[in-house]
Amino acid sequence: MAVWIQAQQLQGEALHQMQALYGQHFPIEVRHYLSQWIESQAWDSIDLDNPQENIKATQLLEGLVQELQKKAEHQVGEDGFLLKIKLGHYATQLQNTYDRCPMELVRCIRHILYNEQRLVREANNGSSPAGSLADAMSQKHLQINQTFEELRLVTQDTENELKKLQQTQEYFIIQYQESLRIQVWPRMAQLSRKERLRRETALSAESRWAALLPFPQELAEKSTEDPAAAAEAADAIILDDELIQWKRKRLAASSLDVSYRSWCEKLAEIIWQNRQQIRRAEHLCQQLPIPGPVEEMLAEVNATITDIISALVTSTFIIEKQPPQVLKTQTKFAATVRLLVGGKLNVHMNPPQVKATIISEQQAKSLLKNENTRNDYSGEILNNCCVMEYHQATGTLSAHFRNMSLKRIKRSDRRGAESVTEEKFTILFESQFSVGGNELVFQVKTLSLPVVVIVHGSQDNNATATVLWDNAFAEPGRVPFAVPDKVLWPQLCEALNMKFKAEVQSNRGLTKENLVFLAQKLFNNSSSHLEDYSGLSVSWSQFNRENLPGRNYTFWQWFDGVMEVLKKHLKPHWNDGAILGFVNKQQAHDLLINKPDGTFLLRFSDSEIGGITIAWKFDSQERMFWNLMPFTTRDFSIRSLADRLGDLNYLIYVFPDRPKDEVYSKYYTPVPCESATAKAVDGYVKPQIKQVVPEFVNASADAGGGSATYMDQAPSPAVCPQAHYNMYPQNPDSVLDTDGDFDLEDTMDVARRVEELLGRPMDSQWIPHAQS
């Protein structure tokens, strides 16, 4: 529904606020008759601070005037006659008002639309349940934009008053000098007493002085309005709220929203303009000293403005690209820092240098307490200095550290059971910014997210656990780097799900059933209801210090192994829903029991970190359910999961009932033609690697009475299809041929050969997989 239609339904105070938005600067009749056209224009796409956008603003002004003129021409009848005159008058009025400053028209209409939308939303949310999160964010943005509009208007009003004071003061000085000249004019005595009195009165310095006296104090009082409002906007809206929220969002690799940068730049521009106004007012007071508390008031306001600028500069010195939170020594890494208001405050005129150092958790605490920690570092970083660069096209001032490397690290004494992978450091970035031609100099510092330093890749798993726990459960405004030792299971579920989707790079996250499985594993509980775990707490020790019951690994190590194998080898199959994953052996059997033979599912191994196993149903004399020894990353580096499944022809259906080839055929490695396969290279024939399960071949043979349906993958050439193994012609052994004559010597010879083969050592990678 159009905003104007909803705005007309406002009542009470909301209606009065809406009506107050209109006046001579923009009549409400124009809004009413051109509502559809006004709401269809891209007012927000124009950058009011960019002079090059003035052309777009002029086009919008011309379009508005043309629409009004069209509307006026279409009015007929007696009532239409008066409306035609009124609309034509409004078209001329708007043309004359905004012809030289079309940006002001854009600013005006944006202000009106923002407030109309705010009033409509407040009315809707007041008569219905709580609005959606998107509505809440939109309202917050409208509130911020409204605050900036109010700041702009107050600042402009102050500017007008300052110009008025300057003109009045200059006029007074001229008149005062003229008065002194007349008093000493020789011909003054020749004038009549009445004429002389008239001229002296007209040029009386006292009358001009009396008229001038109120101006400086009124200006000083008005000047306090801008800094107070700007401080409120800076502290409550931009710096203490929105920017901190973005700094929390960066944990999820969030890029900097253009809105935040725009707000910070607008705030910097307004505050700096306030400071210039104060300086001009002080200059006027020096030119013509006036009794009263004006100088004290201006000095107080100037100090407030300086504090706000300091807060703005230090708060907007941010880390745009974080260094890796698991940092390996002697390994190159990168980071980017940025000053959001650098362009507006012309900091780039004297390009500052940024220095990066690594400090410990205790040193970070001391730094925030303003204790002296100068040159107190915990390691040495190579290539740790960088000059900030200004990018004219984007207006950004940033420093890109591209080739840093941690040469060495100095560790502190650890507490209790704390390991080296639980010790946290941080990268400190510091610089010095000059604002206003060295008029103001600020020392700025910012800390990176916590960093865990490792010296070997084997420590990466446990270091990642420390980082995950810190990122997920750190409270805003904490003392570095305090985190709770225990959290509720639902909190950990949310953190694991976010980490899982980010690491695997998949939109398919953890389902309710997956989380139940994880809870059963962590708490050693058999309940299948997620609600039963909602009140349970998980300690850091449970998460990654203590091994799971009956296992030699922690909960996190197992979960991280799952993510690793999915990320490296199985992501497409997980996204296709072809991997059930989070079920144990008994649950797999329960799912398969009523399915036809050849139905299989893939689940993550309980016995091996990063392992995935195949469970399938095939009813034989020996058993009904079969479980293949888990595959790991090493196995998939040799042959992919899809090809391994393609090798096993007795696996027919992916649970619950999807044909295997329908799910996996698009991932099969193309089979070379016979001529290419048989062709020798440098005198050698290229072999093929193929997945076989001898134990299952024997079981299926016993159950099937020699049927070849489930024996296509047996290692013996006698039961392998000719099409697949054309280089090995079928040559059945007469000993296994039921129709042939029995020969004892041949049988004993075969037995001796088998015994000899069994006695040989075998390469572990070629040992066939057995059931788990």
How many β-strand stretches? Answer: 20
Report the CATH architecture of the largest domain. 2-Layer Sandwich
Number of helices: 26
Instruction: Round the Cα radius of gyration to an integer and report it.
Output: 40 Å
Give the C-level CATH assignment of the largest domain.
Answer: Alpha Beta
Unreliable stretches (pLDDT < 50, length at least 5) are 128-133, 205-213, 699-745, 762-772
Instruction: Give the overall shape, derived from the CA principal axes.
Output: extended
Strand proportion:
5-15%
Mean of residue pLDDT?
78
CATH level 4 superfamily of the largest domain: SH2 domain
The CATH topology of the largest domain is SHC Adaptor Protein
Q: What is the helical fraction, as a range of percent? A: 40-55%
Largest pleated sheet: 5 strands, antiparallel
Q: Structurally, how many domains make up the residues?
A: 4
Secondary structural class: alpha+beta
Assembly type: single chain
| Spatial gap, N to C terminus | 63 Å
